[in-house]
Amino acid sequence: MMESMHWPLENVFLSNSNSVYDPSDPPDIQLRMHPAAMLRNCCATLKILECDSWHGFDCVLKAGTYPAYPQLESLRIKNLDCLNSAPWVISYPNLKYLSVKTTCNYIVDTGEQKWKELEKSVGSDVVDLYLLGLPCHIREIAFSLHSLSLRFFGPVIATARPTRLKLSIPTELFTQPIPTYLEDPALTDLESLVLDVEVWVGGWRGDDGDTDVDCFLGYVFSALRRVSAREFTLFLKVGRSQAFPWASDAVVIGEQDDGSDGSEEEDLSEVEIWANGADLDALVHRFFEEVPSLEWVKLSIGLPEGDSQKRAESSR
């Protein structure tokens, strides 16, 4: 077992403990699978720990038995259900980067432990960070935001008070009349904002076609002015959905009476019209005019036709 080894490891990746982990094992056997226990002989050197589906993290060590890893700076955990995160602060007191991507929205036991500050935290969704309940300042945060998880955004931001924030936004949040997440009062410390927007138009899953992009940008201007942001990045990817996703599996027999193949050219949506006609250099200039505090702006638009892309960036 690894707990008997004495290697000066700096980077460890643990994956898929299903073959060696049995919930019916006695507690002392289960606890040997906890990374903090099994790697204790390299606690003085370990800097990066990544666990994918490693169920040893589900175990709870006895109080006072958590070894400290003073050099550990990066902890990545994914594909686990319920996590007991309270001991992490004991074992990894100087952590800077934390990435947690859970599989279910189970309650997470956070206890009363807390770091003073984290450099960066990444989650697949805002719920990941909410469930961890990390009561500390996190300088940089990146996660996805959806309509069902939107209610967790305020509590997470109020606790973390990030200076750098990246939000991945789907169609339903981009097209809502008022993007309330941009008006959250807890964003007062924000210096850099990245919006990664993916919009689908047409078909069964797309936008209804009346999205006002300029109106959305107006809320962005207001949000950036309110916090005196220094950097802004917008990635806007526009995709087109099929009217019927199963249509590609259909067998076409013959042609129409008029000789056509029966397909019809769909009208462009408002988002596509805006994206095709947007002058990004002029828009970058407008950002600088609307938000005097900005020092750097980057804009990128991906279009469905041939996966074409438009870019512009500038600093002052």
List unreliable stretches of 5+ residues: 105-113, 244-257
- Major sheet: size, sense and barrel closure? 11 strands, mixed
What order do the helices and strands follow? EHHEEHEEHEHEHEHEHHEE
Please give the domain count.
2
Radius of gyration: 24 Å
Instruction: Return the structural class.
Output: alpha/beta
Number of strands: 11
Estimated helix fraction: 10-25%
Please give the alpha-carbon distance between the first and last residues: 57 Å
Largest sheet, spatial ordering of strands: 1-2-3-4-5-6-7-8-9-10-11
If helices are DSSP runs of H or I spanning 4 or more residues, what is the number of helices? 9
How much β-strand is present in the residues? 15-25%
- Overall spatial form: elongated
Q: Mean of the pLDDT scores? A: 78
